[in-house]
């Protein structure tokens, strides 16, 4: 089955039927340069041979995956992402990359089950680049990447993408569970905003679904590219939502009303919608992100993601009451 036609669905059966495989290091224990991290799982022998891998370095060991930069025989360096059992929800992201075929995002070069070979986009993420070049320049990059991600595709949308309403399930649940408090009021307002937007979605299409500064990478000939998509399907206005709560470590900017309004006005044309709708999805996503923190039992202490999302919601409510985005 070709990559472009592969549809993955996340189900209990799919979780059970993971293909067994023989694992091996790319090299003998004392292989060239110690490139293989011996604490990480080795790459599958058949894929090492199939992809011509001659060396690898572990870049990341997250809750959901291991990520390697690999050297290849007679081919440019690439990235190998190997999903863990906890990372099955990332399979739709692979389908999204296949559908984009390199337009605005890294190429999915090949895939075998839970392991994919990806284009190496480079080593500079937008969060780091922003520190040197500034907010305005970084926002221009974001608008450009979003425009590319919104460009048309001749391929049919993948069948395994997560519908946007299901993506927001945690927000609707937490809005009902929380006791009466300012937190509950904020969550219910965000849930009401999300529900209204989800009931009036326009031009529904596949979405990256997790676009933020650390998921936009540069350093190679193709310029800025998106990585690590969630693989959602829904209103394209949601694509900009996560930008408002990022980058990490920029809390004063995140709660700056001038930044919020300028971001909405800048990113709306890239998507072909109104600043008001962009702002609405930013509110909805802040509530969703806060709900994830609550689900995971993470404290809302100062400096935490939950604390920052809660602060954004309170400011967004004030801007809404003031009619900042009223038509």
CATH superfamily of the largest domain: Aminoglycoside phosphotransferase (APH), C-terminal lobe
CATH class of the largest domain: Alpha Beta
Backbone shape: globular
Distance between the termini: 49 Å
Strand arrangement across the biggest beta sheet = 1-2-3-5-4
Oligomer: single chain
| Sheet/helix structural class | alpha+beta
Q: Determine the number of helices (DSSP H or I, runs of at least 4 residues).
A: 12
**Total domain units:** 2
Number of strands: 11
Structure overview:
With 327 residues, the chain is an alpha+beta fold. It folds into 2 domains: 118 residues, Phosphorylase Kinase, domain 1; 198 residues, Aminoglycoside phosphotransferase (APH), C-terminal lobe (Aminoglycoside 3'-phosphotransferase, Chain: A, domain 2, Alpha-Beta Complex). Helix content is 40%, strand content 17%. The protein is built from 12 helices and 11 strands. The strands form 3 sheets. The protein has a 5-stranded antiparallel β-sheet. The chain has a 3-stranded antiparallel β-sheet with strand order 6-9-10. Strand 2 and strand 3 form a beta hairpin. The chain is globular, with a radius of gyration of 20 Å. It starts with 11 loop residues before the first helix and ends in a 6-residue tail after the last helix.
């Amino acid at each position: 089955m070709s990559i472009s036609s592969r549809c993955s669905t996340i189900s209990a059966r799919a979780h059970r039927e993971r293909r067994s495989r023989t694992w091996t290091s790319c090299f003998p224990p004392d292989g060239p340069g110690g490139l293989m991290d011996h604490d990480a799982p080795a790459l599958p022998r058949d894929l090492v041979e199939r992809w011509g891998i001659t060396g690898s370095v572990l870049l990341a060991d997250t809750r959901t995956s291991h990520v390697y930069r690999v050297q290849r025989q007679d081919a440019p360096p690439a990235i190998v992402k190997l999903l863990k059992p906890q990372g099955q929800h990332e399979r739709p992201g692979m389908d999204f990359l296949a559908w984009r075929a390199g337009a605005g995002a890294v190429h999915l070069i090949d895939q075998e089950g839970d392991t994919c070979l990806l284009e190496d986009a480079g080593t500079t993420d937008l969060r780091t680049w922003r520190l040197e070049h500034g907010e305005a320049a970084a926002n221009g990059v974001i608008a450009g990447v979003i425009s590319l991600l919104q460009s048309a595709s001749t391929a049919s949308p993948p069948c395994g993408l997560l519908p946007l309403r299901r993506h927001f399930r945690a927000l609707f649940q937490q809005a009902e569970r929380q006791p009466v408090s300012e937190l509950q009021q904020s969550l219910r307002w965000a849930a009401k905003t999300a529900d209204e937007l989800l009931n009036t979605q326009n031009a529904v299409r596949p979405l990256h679904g997790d676009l933020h500064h650390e998921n936009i990478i540069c350093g190679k000939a193709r310029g800025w590219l998106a990585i690590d998509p969630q693989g959602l399907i829904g209103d394209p206005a949601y694509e900009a939502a996560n930008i408002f709560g990022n980058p990490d470590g920029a809390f004063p900017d995140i709660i700056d009303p001038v930044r919020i309004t300028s971001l909405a006005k800048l990113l709306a044309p890239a998507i072909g919608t109104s600043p008001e709708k962009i702002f609405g999805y930013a509110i909805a996503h802040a509530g969703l992100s806060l709900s994830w923190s609550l689900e995971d039992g993470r404290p809302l202490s100062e400096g935490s993601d939950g604390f920052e999302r809660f602060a954004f919601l309170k400011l967004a409510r004030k801007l809404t009451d003031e009619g900042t985005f009223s038509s």
